[in-house]
């Protein structure tokens, strides 16, 4: 195994060097990606980059003759070169709950747990479910699985027992890591009890042999003899060393069920080699990683963003991550800004939902904090309106930090389209330019490639190292979902517009595009226009059937102050921002919008509520706040 730690390629680049990299990755992808791969440590270095093929049965295949271990790349090589560097700073939601782990300490903790897993019979290729809040053990759990070649599947703490059961059955998890209780502000979520119910619901289908319980609050929980074990008791019996399994680059590292989608959950499978190359490369390139960074990605680890930019990217690059357990404005507005000041966070990566939420608290909150340590700030998950972008840039970045809006998906493993910090000039509201090696393409509805400026379905013409390999146990569904809409291409499900100079603007999921009298209207377009109205905090547009126009637009608006808000202002903003044809049929003034935990507005629900179709609203447990649904129904009824 090679010893030296080579700095990731993307960091510290000038705009010119970045352009050269884009060219090289485009012209000689094999050479370029092998070069990137060799920055990792391998047991057997790969001789070949991609053998992927988007036709026929579809194959996503990267570095497949190489062998490595992901946890060695994230830990051991840094322990050798910088054992005392902080790997992880954890701050609980109460001030006095905190912990800092050096690379050496994190390595030891991961090894102890890896030994526990092995002792409990977890084998290479087995699935382990991780159902924990933002505590250190969640990250240790992921890395411990990686160490022994187990496949982790991180499950959101807010899933209902039914939601968990579905995913436990589908993955066939043999062991579960859960908490006694999870905290969310003042709320307490009885994680262990919910998990017990989930396992019971799996019935004969359950393969869960053990449940390891992390004491987060120290609450008493029912323990089933033999099956249930306390985490701390188990790790205390083990040694802080554990040999790492040698994994093929194509061996699965994790499964992750996609958020907010309809139908059965899809367990996207990510591999070990390609995924880690992509995580490290994009983390370095997009955020211009520097060794002294304190990198804070606010995403929950149960989201792909948490996998790639809380854990794998920054740790592969030997960085220091900050993990904060709590909510942005609990116990009081400005909590996250205090965390940034307290720890000297240099890179802050969050979501437009968070930006809109904190915007709503007024400028005084953010202006009363220093935020001088910040160097780069970013968002992911949904389009950010130009107004929110500008506010983030001016008030949080103090006009000094590049703002990176990053477009990507669970399926892509890491960032695909962005304005890489220091290399690409951003445009507020635009996703900007594809990263090196990303062959983004627009196709029209006839499947023809759109050249130059234009609009179409956002597709990828070739594979990239971070691409998901398959859907767990259902490769045909993978092929059908992503490779049949535009044969020969990976279809993202998103629409996009491209300017003549290549900048991309995401128009939203194509299933969210509304067609009013033949005019195609992106819901994001409407919402951007509505956002121009300063009385409005947030809005969501949906299309519902309309006798004359095919579809009509309905807009849900969250006003800053309910009493003083005039719906006609929305009409004006849409007419001005988009055109008269896009003026909504109906505007509903509501307190909040239904969102997934990753902050995506669940338009499917809004559409049904707007149509007064209240049958089969589906599983609401994936919502950040399920209570909003009955409230919305009542508000819509009251407004006719
Ligand atoms: C990382 C993540 C993917 C979908 C994607 C798109 C939307 C994500 C975006 C964005 C506009 C951005 N999306 N980032 N839309 N601008 N910067 O979010 O993964 O949860 O799988 O969602 O989210 O619609 O297709 P995932």
UniProtKB/TrEMBL annotation:
Q: Which Pfam families match?
A: ACAS_N, AMP-binding, AMP-binding_C
Occurrences of domain AMP-dependent synthetase/ligase (ranges): 75-461
Q: Which UniProt keywords apply?
A: Acetylation, ATP-binding, Ligase, Nucleotide-binding
For this protein, the Enzyme Commission number is 6.2.1.1
Domain AMP-binding enzyme C-terminal residues, every copy: 525-600
Quote the InterPro entries the UniProt record gives.
Ac_CoA_lig, ACAS_N, AMP-bd_C, AMP-bd_C_sf, AMP-binding_CS, AMP-dep_synth/lig_dom, ANL_N_sf
> What is an example of a GO molecular function annotated in this UniProt entry?
acetate-CoA ligase activity
Gene Ontology BP term (one): acetyl-CoA biosynthetic process from acetate
- Using the record's annotation, list all stretches that form the Acetyl-coenzyme A synthetase N-terminal domain: 18-74
Can you tell me where the transmembrane regions are? none
Name the family: Belongs to the ATP-dependent AMP-binding enzyme family.
Output this protein's name.
Acetate--CoA ligase
